[in-house]
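User: Here's a chain of 127 residues. Predict its fold as tokens.
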Amino acid sequence: MITEDKMRFSDSDLAEFKDLIIKKIEKAQSDLDLIKSAYMNDLNNGTDDTSPTFKAFEEGSETMSKEANSQLAIRQEKFLRDLKNALFRVENKTYGICRVTGKLIAKERLKLVPHATMSIEAKNMQR
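Assistant: Prediction complete.
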């Protein structure tokens, strides 16, 4: 059991978080690959021989879809970068230390948001 006044998590806690983060990285990378493949797809649904009005709607929808996929890809890349940074913090044993208060972030929070760099207390101070 780690108390709040301790400076860091134990090596066994760090190993547990490392496994969690690695699994999240693998899933996030897989999701990013799916988003990118959808983005790269030309989304041609065979509307070449249909009415011009429908084709215009289809092209507008395609543009919106590509923009949405692009935004999703950007968010996913940031998420991946944050997870990789968390993994780096695990390796140098600074993982789970709030960058504002210097206290340990609650384990429950880190299990839900493994890339968190601030405790709930610090997040609430920002408001």
